[in-house]
Amino acid sequence: MRFIVAKDYMDLSRKAGGFIFSQISLNPNSVLGLATGSSPIGVYEQLIKWYELDELDFSNVKAVNLDEYVGLSNKDTQSYSHFMHENLFSKINIKNENTHIPNGKATNIDKECDDYESLICSLGGIDMQLLGIGQNGHIGFNEPNDIFNKHTHLTGLTESTIKANERFFDSYGDVPKSAISMGIKTIMAAKKIVLIASGESKSEIVYESFFGNITPKVPASVLQLHPDVTIIVDELAYKTIKLKSKT
Ligand code: F6R
After folding, report:
1. Is this structure's pTM higher than 0.85?
2. Given pLDDT bands bounded at 50, 70 and 90, which one contains residue 246?
3. Which residue has its alpha carbon closest to ligand 1 atom 4?
4. Which one of 34, 43, 44, 66 would you pick to mutate in the ligand 1 pocket, going by the greatest count of ligand atoms within 8 A of its CB?
5. CA–CA distances in Å: residue 62 to residues 120, 171, 198, 221
6. Which of 42, 142, 233, 242 is 20 to 30 A distant from 36 in Cα terms?
7. Helix (H) or strand (E) run with residue 36 in it
8. Whether residue 65 lies in the annotated active site
9. 100/198 Cα distance (integer angstroms)
C-alpha cells in the first residue's frame, strides 16, 4: 500500500490525476474504473485540462463506473450517469460507446448486475480504478456488512450514506435508497487502485480502513490486501493518522 499525503484538495487532485495520466500514456487502450461524488471532481478537472492542452487522448480509453442509483434514468440530473457526462465525458474525446454505467432504470436489476459484471470481464478487467471513500468506509456502494459482497449487486444505502448524499438532492426524502454497485471482488480485481480522501470528515475512517482490522464492517479495509493500491489524502484527511502515530 502506497500512502501519499497531499497539501490540499488541489494537490491531491493533481497527484491522483497524474496516476491516470501515466496509465493512459502507457496504455492508450486502458480500462478506467471511475467514481462519482465530490472527491473526484478535481481529478476530472485536471484530466480535462490535460486533454485541452493536447497532452491526453481518450479516444481509445474505456470507462466503467462504480455505481448508479436505482430508479434514476441517465437523463435524471441527479443520476451518476449525468454527473459523469457533466463533469468529464462531455469535455474530453472519450467515445460515448466506451463509457459504461449501470442502468438504474433496468427492469430486471439482477440481470443488469450480471450483464455489468460480464461487460467488465469482456473489456479485459479494469486497469486502474479510482475510488472515493464514504464516512462509514464504503467503497462504491459496498456498505458496512457482515460479508464482503463479491460482484456487481443491488444494495440498500445506509442512513449515513443517504445523509451524506442529501447535499446533492433537494431533500433527504429525494435521495434514492438503493443502488447498483460493483462488488468488492470486482473492485479488488482491478490491476491498480487509487483511492482519494479529502477533508477532516474522512480522517477517522481513513485511519480505521488502512491501519485497523480488515473487516466487511469497514469495507475499504479490504484494500490492505490489494497488491497495487495508492491512497492519496490531503492534510485534513491525514489528521487522525498523524495524531495516532504520535501516541
Ligand atoms: C461514488 C461512490 C462512493 C463515493 C463516496 C464518497 O461513485 O462510489 O463510494 O466515492 O460516497 O463520496 P464523496 O466523494 O462525495 O465524499
Report:
1. yes
2. confident
3. 132
4. 66
5. 10, 34, 26, 27
6. 242
7. none
8. no
9. 26
Distance, CA of 193 to CA of 188 (rounded, Å): 8
Q: What residue type is assigned to position 85 of the chain?
A: H
- Is residue 123 within 8 A of residue 31, CB to CB? The reply is yes
pLDDT per residue as tens digits for the range 20-56:
999 999 999 999 999 999 999 999 999 999 999 999 9
pLDDT > 90 in the chain, percent: 92
- The pLDDT value given to residue 230: 98
Question: Pick the catalytic residue: 98, 100, 103, 138?
Answer: 138
Distance between CA atoms of residues 118 and 7, nearest Å: 39
Which residues lie across from 232 on neighbouring strands? 4, 196
Q: Confidence band (pLDDT; 50, 70, 90) for 245?
A: confident
The verdict on whether 54 is a catalytic residue reads no
Is the CB–ligand 1 distance for residue 137 below 6 Å?
Answer: no
Give, as one character, the DSSP assignment of residue 110. Answer: H
149 an active-site residue? no
Å from CA of 26 to ligand 1 middle: 27
State whether the beta carbon of 135 lies less than 6 angstroms from ligand 1: no
104 lines ligand 1 (CB under 6 A): no
- Residue 85 designated active-site: no
Residue type (1 letter), 230: T
Residue 201: pLDDT above 80?
Answer: yes
Nearest to 124 by CA among 7, 4, 31, 21: 31
pLDDT at residue number 58:
98
Is there a contact between 51 and 59 (Cβ–Cβ < 8 Å)? no
Q: Is the CB of 132 under 6 A from ligand 1?
A: yes
